[in-house]
Q: What sequence folds into this?
């Protein structure tokens, strides 16, 4: 069996290692450059690879192809593979048959990283040896090859879910759905929604689907489509007493016998969206029979996620916050919503089809000045020029931070929450966040 892996990053290299271990003839091909650390791993494992090209005669003879999530279906090599009827799957689909342990799959437009990490944190505190993978950390396939975990908590993007046919999580979580990555779905929101719901398509009556019952898109889809899994809703209102909800500023869960309650002000994470992330994580923990005391303690000591509303420094009584992980308007909505001081907002990058009307009201209320940080800022300028008095265009993080510092007065907040992808000026949202933190530390 010939396995061709397209993309020599984390998921690609992990898949190649697992494939070789399971007896496949493996070839890795990357249209860009492969990072040196991955080249070393490929060499160490005696795996064949190429970079900066896709040699068709070495790819079109595959029995199965694993493509990295970053490669669009429109790319010429994928089109040719599909014309030949060669299966093109995601890392999650390739790796899952090689493990017997159960997985918890978490998806959503926003909040999935925080929810995944929080869930993993609680289960680990509860004594379970769980792997953490998907969009985070060491790839799922790589961990399956090492076979050291009794289960996995997976953060799953719509791109990873596009590439599954049989993958079935025992517990699936959908944190929320809002327009994102529409450039990859022919600007058709319904296609993107359908991609997210693939997470539950193979689930049975023995499995669970945890979802946001306040989310109109999710509710609408569930009303019009059948789901076999047991449904567990979470909600900020107490209307649906079935799953987990908020009453008198307290989270109340009836998932297991004997109520679990937790006052919202005890959570280590701030903001309404994090109450929802916490409810999703509590639901999983209860299904996994983690003790209430452990759940409570884990929620009070969780440190949060880097680049997600991360407090960097306070300088001359101005708070600097790194929310580089906000790559769409919905994510930035949560960030602006949790601001309590006048805000200098650093925004911009590669627009993935944003509708800035969604955050217009919050920008009016919270934002005193905008610093644009992107190659093309025209859409941001036309959206907000009548709303905010001061707007400045910049092309580097150092410049953006220095200008933001000049605009900010005592008691203000400087917020990096770009609402866009990072690839015009940065390698990734992590790179963008790290550059922001370094620039703030140099002030």
A:
């Amino acid at each position: 069996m010939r396995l061709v892996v397209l993309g020599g990053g984390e998921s690609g290299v992990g898949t190649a290692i697992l494939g070789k271990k399971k007896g496949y003839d493996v070839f890795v091909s990357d249209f860009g450059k492969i990072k040196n650390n991955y080249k070393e791993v490929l060499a160490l494992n005696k795996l064949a690879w190429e970079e900066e090209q896709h040699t068709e005669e070495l790819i079109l003879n595959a029995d199965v192809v694993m493509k990295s999530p970053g490669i669009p279906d429109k790319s010429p090599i994928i089109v040719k593979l599909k014309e030949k009827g060669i299966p093109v799957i995601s890392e999650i689909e390739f790796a899952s048959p090689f493990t017997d342990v159960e997985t918890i799959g978490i998806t959503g437009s926003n909040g999935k990283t925080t929810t995944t990490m929080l869930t993993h944190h609680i289960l680990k505190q509860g004594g379970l040896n769980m792997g953490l993978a998907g969009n985070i950390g060491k790839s799922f396939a790589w961990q399956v090859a090492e076979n050291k975990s009794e289960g996995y908590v997976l953060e799953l993007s719509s791109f990873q879910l596009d590439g599954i046919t049989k993958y079935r999580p025992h517990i699936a979580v959908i944190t929320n759905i809002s327009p994102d990555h529409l450039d990859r779905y022919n600007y058709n929101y319904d296609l993107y929604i359908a991609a997210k719901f693939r997470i539950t398509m193979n689930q049975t009556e023995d499995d669970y689907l945890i979802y946001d019952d306040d989310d109109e898109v999710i509710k609408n889809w569930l009303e019009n489509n059948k789901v076999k899994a047991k449904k567990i809703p979470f909600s900020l209102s107490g209307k649906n007493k079935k799953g987990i909800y908020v009453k008198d500023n307290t989270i109340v869960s009836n998932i297991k016998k004997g109520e679990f309650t937790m006052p919202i002000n005890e959570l280590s994470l701030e903001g309404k969206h994090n109450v929802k992330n916490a409810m999703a994580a509590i639901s999983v923990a209860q299904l996994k029979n983690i003790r209430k005391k452990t759940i409570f303690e884990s929620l009070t000591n969780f440190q949060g996620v880097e680049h997600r509303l991360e407090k960097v420094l306070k300088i001359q009584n101005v708070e600097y916050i790194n929310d580089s992980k906000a790559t769409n308007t919905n994510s930035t909505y949560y960030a602006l919503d949790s601001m309590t001081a006048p805000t200098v907002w650093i925004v911009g990058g590669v627009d993935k089809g944003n509708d800035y009307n969604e955050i217009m009201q919050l920008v009016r209320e919270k934002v005193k000045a905008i610093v644009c940080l992107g190659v093309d800022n025209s859409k941001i300028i036309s959206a907000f020029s009548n709303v905010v008095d001061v707007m400045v265009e910049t092309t580097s993080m150092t410049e953006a931070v220095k200008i933001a510092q000049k605009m900010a007065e005592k008691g203000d907040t400087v917020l990096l929450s770009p609402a866009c992808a990072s690839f015009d000026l940065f390698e990734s949202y992590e790179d963008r966040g790290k550059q922001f933190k370094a620039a703030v530390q140099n002030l």
Remarks:
- Residues 2-89 form a domain with the Rossmann fold fold (CATH 3.40.50.720).
- The chain has three domains: 2-89, 93-301, 310-441.
- The chain has a mean pLDDT of 93.
- Residues 182 and 353 are 6 Å apart (CA to CA).
